[in-house]
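Attaching the record inline, Q. Sequence:
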Amino acid sequence: MKRRNVKEIALIGVLGGLAGVLMLFRTPLPFMPPFMDFDLSSLPEMIGGFALGPIPAVFIILVKILVKLVLVGTNSMFTGELSNIILSMSYVLPSVFIYHRNKNKKTAQIGMLSGTIIVSLVAVLTNLLIIIPFYVSLYGMTMDQIIAMCSSVNPYVTNTFMMALLGIIPFNAIKFGTVSIVTLLLYKKISPLLKQYVNA
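Structure, as predicted:
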């Protein structure tokens, strides 16, 4: 049991490190808010959560943030990292809890669909209550200027509600929906190797 725990900790470190590196490969999406970047850092979190459970998934998320901070630091006085932790847990934990109740492809799909919906809604709160107010304060901007930035890439974004409806929600649905699809394609191929390593 002790050896298994050591291997599980090592695997958490590897998956968290991989997630941290994936955070560095970020790209904007067309017609989406310019302050949001797409990345696949939640992929190792979801695969690790499915293989090991919710508690290890939390530690993978925390390791990811630590690795990111070590590699590039923070440009948001840790508000971006706090938001990332909240969003990652909002996506991964509902998915993992549902999947671990009855491990099969259907519950994995239901879990990740639920997680994608939850995180898309939570993202509205984190952006409107944490991220955007921080940048407004830091750079002496106004909410109207933030909306104007979004309107420059999507002219239908004319107020805060439309920014949430046409920007924040669809961006996160695309981001985490993509992670869900890739997880479904990879997990069954990877999970036997992960479990074999931990239990060997």
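The helical segments are 2-22, 42-52, 54-72, 79-101, 105-138, 143-153, 160-199. The first helix runs from residue 2 to 22.

More tomorrow.
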